[in-house]
Specification:
The chain has one domain. By secondary structure, it is mainly alpha-helical. The protein contains 20 helices and four strands. Helix 4 runs antiparallel to helix 14, helix 6 packs across helix 11 and helix 6 packs antiparallel against helix 12. A two-stranded antiparallel ribbon has the order 1-4. Strands 2-3 form a two-stranded antiparallel sheet. Helix content is 67%, strand content 3%.
Length: 441
Amino acid sequence: MADVMKKLFGFEKGTHKVRTEIVAGITTFLTMAYILAVNPGIFSALADAGMPTPSVFTATALAALVGTLVMALYAKKPFGLAPGMGLNAFFVFTVCLGMGYSWQFALTAILIEGFIFILLTLTKVRELITNSIPADMKKAISAGIGLFIAFIGLKNCNIIVDNPATLVGIGDLSDPAAILAIIAFVITGALLVLKVKGALLIGIVISTLIGIPMGVTTFGKFSLAVPSIKPIFCQFAWNQILSWDMLVVVLTFLFIDMFDTIGTVVGVSMKAGMVDKDGKVDGVNRILMADAVATTVGACLGTSTTTTYVESAAGVSEGGRTGLTAFVVAVCFALALPFSTFFLAIPSSATGAVLVLVGVMMASSVGSINFTDMEEAIPAFMTMLLMPLCYSISDGIMIGVIVYVVLHLLSCKKETVKKISPTMAVLAVLFIGKYLFDALN
């Protein structure tokens, strides 16, 4: 039995404990299970375009299940995977609602991204690309996405609304939906402060129940049937794969996912002591491959990019060190499949408040950005600022890259110019060309 456990999960008797790994897996699931409510909520904006919200729920759970299983059995690491926050917002609000492309177009971009990631991981180019991007830019992208997600959350709660005079303004705080959102924010925030395991999920559940007498939460007919993913399964649009916008979208998905995954893997691995003396993660290519395969499978299932979750740190904190922890997470997602009626009844007021708090977590990297060096600070700040203001993650990244390269060139300092990697230079040229093309058409 011990040999089987080691072969399957990298579990070694005497070094690891089954009970510890199981508890760690349940803990990780509790901290990331909010995605089962939040992801369908975000994609509900595309329901009228033919992307049924119940189908997205099933796709979300299945993508998390498959991705985490690959992590457990192939990489043998204690990380959970699911459709990524920020990546789902880019899919819905930028690619589909902003750029006007169909959700089939976006799924095609994710499928292409997944194939590229598999290729880059096999050739170990993915690590080289990641290392070429300035550290402060990576942190700014994460923080900017956090601000963007928080803005979407406040908007979904009707706390932030349109204002003709100032573009945006405070909404009607007497609205039951807004009141519930404030209650959800306070409850969930307090749980996070108290370091309660599964604070986000617990906050969503409590807020959903409070919303029943307020008339904000409404349950449909309860059913244990799992919604079909047939309407969104393998729905791809191949007629635009050679377009400029497809290139931009694929690149944006690539960079967001790349930075998010690398940052999560390194950060959580360091917390778990799973790094060598040089800070390199043991088996990092297998971890990246699991992420790449999960993204490809997720696109086929009909959901946004599947990525490694930073909430895995919760399970690691409980002692999870092997693939058994990830296996338990996968089992939990499988058990959640029949409960779509509950997850889909969760109001946007509850999930919106969680989006704001997830934004806080993602924005934490801003504290380590070097704001004393203007050559680094200005591009980082522009990246963060423009994501919520332009309501576009891709515009924030593209303009940030352009500003970075231009400012470093204008410094006329040899040592500063040398900081521009070939990758950054090529991207800057491509992005400038994109904006010139848009301006001329």
